[in-house]
Each structure stands twice: as structure tokens, then as C-alpha cells.
Amino acid sequence: MSGLERLPDEAQVVRCGQPPFDQPKPLHERCDEHDGVYGFSVQSRGNQTLEALAVWCLNNRIGVTTVGTIRERGYEVVITSGSGFHATVIVPRDWTPEAARRLAESFEDRENPVAKTERHR
Amino acid sequence: MNPIFADFNSMTESRQVRLTCQGSQDDLRAGGILPGDWVWLTDGEMEVGARIEADNEGRTYGVPAWDTLVYLDPEPELSFPTVWSELRRLLDLDGRTSEDESRVLQLLTWFLALAPPEVKEMIPPGFTESRRAAVLRALGHYELAQQEIVKATASDPANENYVCRSLELLSRTDLNRALHEAPRLVNDPSTGATVLAECVNILAIYMENLSEQEFDEKFNMILKWIDRSQNAPGIENIRVGLLGQVLFNRGMALLRGNQIQAARGYFEKILELNPRDQVAQQALSLNHYDASARHLAELYRARSLSAA
After folding, report:
1. Does residue B125 sit within a domain?
2. Closest-CA residue in chain A for B23?
3. How distant is the Cα of A44 from the closest Cα of chain B, in angstroms?
4. Domain count of the fold of chain B
């Protein structure tokens, strides 16, 4: 994980799709390795608005939280390569479905504030 | 083929979807999907057609055809009559743009989601799949279109239009397989005129690239297939455009066989059916089978079957 940029606690975190992100596959089956760390993908940067992050989501619903909230639950968020403001919420490789469900609960279910036609394809 | 799970959060800088998470890998394995295949990717909220690729390290990606993206859940303000009304208007529209085609794909999805049970019962077997196939064909996604028309044909195997379109799409994605399938259908006495017309077209496309000697060897075969299609069950109800295609293929085969007057006779027959057929009009002035003739043949054979 060394060399990967850490995000400030107040940075917003957006995950495309409707929380708790468990249909049709549970969140722990959506994890993968990104730049040497294992976890699930989100959009996050310090000083970026919700709209600037959500524009990278094609979904009509998004999950929103902050880096600080994720850290309070014992996880880390780092910048990794990918489209837009891609970042990874790092989780253990043997992450359990129950632990995944608990973390997913920290994401607030919101409508994507960006119009469909403005979202990046 | 079932859709493949995709996490659209996990995309590369070039907007390819990483399919390396367990959820995607399980589906890829279950479907026996390999690089080069076309699939539908879904996260349960959206669906998009994509070609599967793998990088040098074996990591799998989906390269989406974004013009096929649809949202699975209808927007809350939409009702069935609204969706049906817009869908019908677009289906009746001549000269649809690619945006219109993408919209039709979206509306077909919502149409099925919103249709009351009594309406669903009235939908002819394979209707939505064949419409999806027509849209995907119009957008140039032949492999995805082929998958849809195969589903339509499975729902209604006796529907000649579905079989015909399936063959046409197969000839675009895999001409060898289409060439393997066509003789089987020609030799089946129950095959109708519509399907046989497409078999003729497939053989004509194949013969286009043959040497003169190879062409001569197949010349009688194509004439025999054309005779067969013109005497087949359902010839009296065949669409004018498709009958024109049979006549055009006959004319072109005769032209290449140096039977110029006979060839012109068939181009004239097309004009009797449709006096505004500009390609047939141009074909009348051909004196031999040259690059112009090949160009006209290509134009004629590429005509849309979406209304079939």
C-alpha cells in the first residue's frame, strides 16, 4: 500500500449504484485487486464536489459517505488507477458477507444529482 | 446466454469495465465466455452489450458498446401507456437515427417491465427479442443482434422472418457457418420462400469472392437455389423487397455468366415490382460484371431486413 495516496477524512466517497450494493451480487464478490491493494471501487478525492464525483457514475442511484466514516469502521481508502477519481476501499481478502453488509450501511442512498446525458460513458 | 455481472465502478481510464472480481469471474466461467465473445453486462440496475477482451496478463475486460446501454427499472413517472405510445411512434418512424434506435432498446426494456399481464399474454412469441435484434443490427452490433434473433427463433421456430434474419446476421458474423446452414435449409422441402431468399443471398455473397473458374462451378447451383426459392411455399406472400433481392441475385449471376440480356430481364422485373428501385435502374446499364456491378451487388445485399 506504500506509495498510494491517502485521502483526507472529509473527502466524500461515492459508489455508483444503490446501497447496500448486494444485488445481483454481494459487495464482497465485487472486490478486486487495484494497484496492489484489494478492495472495492469508489470515486473519491479531497476538495471535489458530489457532482464532480457522481458524473463518473452511470447509475441513477449512488451511495455516498466520507473517508472519515469508512476509517471509523476500520477500513482505509486510497487513490488507485481507474476512470475519473477512482479510489479503492481496502478490505481483507477473506472479507465476510456480514462485514461487507455492515460497511455498505454507512453509504447513504441518494439519487444521482447529475443528469443522465451529462454522465461520462 | 445469461448476462454477466459487472461492477461499473471498476473501470479503466479508457472506460473499459474490469471483469476481474469474483462475481464477474463466476459468471464468465459459468457461461464459458472467452475473449472476443459479445455479452450483456449488468449490475442489476443497468445493462450494456460488450465485447470481452483480455490483457497480456490474462485480466478480463468488457469493452462496452455504450449505445446499447439501458436502465432496467423504469423511471418512476413512466406508465405503460406512455412507454407504449413512444415505442410505437418510434417503431413506425422511417429513417430512425442511432439515438432513436438506442431509445427503442430502452423502451422495449421498460415495455416488458411495465406491461400488464393481459398485454404480456398478447405479445407474439419472440416479438421483443426480434425488435431488439433489429435495433442492434441497425446500430451495427451484429453479434448481439444474432444472440437476440436466436432467442426469438427459439420462441417461435416456425417464424420464417426470424429464421431469415438469423441467417442474414449469421452471414455477417460467420459466413462459413451460414454457408453450412444454407444447404440444409435448401434441401428441406418445407423451407419457405422467405428463408430460401436469404439462403440465395448468402451463396451470392460467398460467390462474390470466387475466381472465375470457381464461379462457373457454382453457377448452376445458385440458379437452382433461386428456382427453388421462386417455387417454394409462401412465394405468393413474400415481401417485394426480398423478391427483388432474389431477382437481383439472379440478374447478377447471369451478368457474371455473360448472359447480359437475360440479366437485364431480371433487373426489369425488379423495376416492374418497384419502379423506384435505383440500384436495379443502375444495374440495367451494366454490360459486364465489373467493379460497378460488384458495388451495386454489395449495396443490394446489404439492405436492411429490419422490417422483415
Report:
1. no
2. A29
3. 12
4. 2
**Domain range for B210:** 162-301
Judged by CB atoms within 8 Å, which residues 56-95 of A form the interface with B?
57-61, 81-83, 86
What does the mean pLDDT of chain B come to? 95
| A101 touching chain B per CB within 8 A | no
Cβ atoms < 10 Å from Cβ of B254: 22
Q: Which of chain B's residues have a Cβ under 8 Å away from the Cβ of A32?
A: 7, 10, 18, 20-21
Over residues A59-114, the pLDDT tens digits come to 999 999 999 999 999 999 999 999 999 999 999 999 999 999 999 999 999 999 99
Could you read off the pLDDT of B93-129 as tens digits, one per residue? 999 999 999 999 999 999 999 999 999 999 999 999 9
Q: What is the ipTM of this complex?
A: 0.95
Shortest distance between the Cα of B127 and any Cα of chain A, in A, equals: 27
* Distance between B86 CA and the closest CA of chain A, angstroms: 19
pLDDT for residue B307: 40
CA contacts within 13 A on the Cβ side of B198: 29
- In this complex, the residue of A15, A23, A58 whose CB is nearest that of residue B46 is A58
The one-character DSSP state at A75 is -
Q: Does residue B102 fall inside a structural domain?
A: no
In a domain, B123, yes or no: no
Q: Which of B64, B88, B112 is the last residue of a domain?
A: B64
**Residue B80 is assigned to a structural domain of this protein:** no
Cell of B278: 435505383
